Amino acid sequence: MSDKAPVLEMRNVDKSFGPIDVLHEISLKVHEGEVLCLLGDNGAGKSTLIKTLSGVHQPTRGQMMMDGQEVRFPRPRDAQEMGIATVHQFGGTYPLMSVGRNFFAGAEPTKGFGPFKVFDRQKANQIAVEEVQKMGITRITDGDRLVGGLSGGERQSLAIARAVYFGARVLILDEPTAALGVKQAAHVLRIVNEAKRRGLAVIFITHQVMHAMAVGDHFAVLIRGAIAADFRKGEKSREEIADLMAGGESMADLEANIDGMADA
């Protein structure tokens, strides 16, 4: 791992909503060219953590750091301008818009002058297709194709390629494989590895241990808003990680409890 400061770091971050504490002393760091897998079951606090990283929520206490310097993100746009891109579960794409339009939504290239400027569809389509294909999505060859006709994995890949093109340094992926079949999920995992190869710092949020182990370098398990374990690749088995996510209760104990209930 590089001796450079982490691209993004949280130091003892708490997040409270009135009297309710949601995040407790979260300390995490991710370096360039590294995938940090944040594992947790439903209700573990993953959504609040994502929103805090991306500027939707402000930490109640603690520090956010980029490249060793403290930063604050009063708005999501501030986080985006610092190079933090969040791709949510369904890619944040618009089904009734074309690939080119989706790729440049909010940042459309234009041609012409003054009041005669119009959307440069040819340029948008060309760049969008090129960038998506660089990420390994060879099936997309027409920038005019409607995104609604793409698979879930292709939509995720389009959103990731867009983030990379617009200069993301930190890529936050919120359950990108949760609603996908085996083939599509494998495709997204290849895209995650490609983003890592390009030097991005990737935060991969998931509750699927196998997917995390396929791409992760560094792992953190979140339980009830706190980090229950923090470890590197190869330090824990799949079964140990699953036990941690279950709150420390082993799968064998859970199965025994279920069998006992069935016998009662």
From TrEMBL:
This is Monosaccharide ABC transporter ATP-binding protein, CUT2 family. PANTHER family: CARBOHYDRATE TRANSPORT ATP-BINDING PROTEIN MG119-RELATED, SUGAR ABC TRANSPORTER ATP-BINDING PROTEIN. SUPFAM superfamilies: P-loop containing nucleoside triphosphate hydrolases (SSF52540). Residues 8-249 form the ABC transporter domain. The lineage of its organism: Bacteria, Pseudomonadati, Pseudomonadota, Alphaproteobacteria, Rhodobacterales. Keywords: ATP-binding, Nucleotide-binding. Pfam families: ABC_tran (PF00005). One of its GO terms (molecular function) is ATP binding. PROSITE patterns: ABC_TRANSPORTER_2 (PS50893). It comes from Thalassococcus halodurans. Gene3D superfamilies: P-loop containing nucleotide triphosphate hydrolases. InterPro entries: AAA+_ATPase, ABC_carbohydrate_import_ATPase, ABC_transporter-like_ATP-bd, P-loop_NTPase. SMART domains: AAA.
